[in-house]
Amino acid sequence: MPDLAPQSTAGHWYLYILRCSDGSLYTGISLDPERRCMEHNQQLSRASRYVWARRPAQLIWQRPVANQSVALRLEYRLKRLTKVRKEQLLQEDGVWQILQATIKTAP
Description:
Blueprint: E1 13-19, E2 25-30, H1 33-42, H2 49-52, E3 58-65, H3 68-79, H4 83-91, H5 93-105
Antiparallel strand pairs: 1-2, 1-3
């Protein structure tokens, strides 16, 4: 579940990926991915149901993005990638560049 706190001019929005205890991957956005990971693991009221059922989850990837709007669009696209493609993203920065380019060319 995305962290929808008001946009801060002091911080950046981040797209992040968690690896759950069953090996599955969870994608989200947040102003503070480390805090968000802790919430997923320790606070039922703030966790996504998916991650809560597969705890503990570990923050394995994060990238800053321009703003919340871009973060939401990238999250949408990333959630639709196959697990194989997400694993490639974790290993190859070129996949991240392609994903970002889809946002710039999207209507």
